[in-house]
Amino acid sequence: MTTHLPRLDLAFVSSPVVDFLVEECVIDADLRATFGELYVAYKKWSRRNDVHCSGACGFGLALRSAVPGCRVVRVSKADTRRWYTGLALKPVAADLAGWRRCAAKLSGGGQ
C-alpha cells in the first residue's frame, strides 16, 4: 500500500528531508532501504537543489518522524547495515511495482 506524506505540520512543510522524500522516494510498507543508500541520495539531492544537508543523525530522526511506520531494523547479525522499512528510493520502488505486475500476470490476476 503506497501512501503520501502528510503535510500538516508547518515544520515539515519547510523541511528539506520531506522535500527529498517527496521527490526521490516512495513510501510503502513493503519497501526498505539502507540508511547508507538513503543518506548518499539525500546528500546528492541537497547539492543539486542547493539545500543545506542535515547531518546523518538529523537525517535519520527526520526520516523516522516523516514516514509513518518507518522503523530501523537489522536483517541479520552478519549484516551490520541499518535498514529503514516503509520507504525506498524511486528506482527500487519502480522495480517492485514491475515485479508486482509480473506476479499478478503469472497468477492470472493481471490479464
Could you list some keywords that capture this structure?
5 helices; 4 strands; alpha+beta; globular
Provide structural commentary:
With 111 residues, the protein is α+β, with helices and mostly antiparallel strands. The chain has one domain: Winged helix-like DNA-binding domain superfamily/Winged helix DNA-binding domain (Arc Repressor Mutant, subunit A, Orthogonal Bundle), CATH 1.10.10. It is built from 5 helices and 4 strands. It has helices spanning 10-13, 16-24, 35-48, 56-66, 90-106, and strands at 2-3, 25-34, 71-73, 83-89. Strands 1-2-4-3 form a 4-stranded antiparallel beta sheet. The chain is globular, with a radius of gyration of 15 Å. It starts with a strand and ends in a 5-residue tail after the last helix.
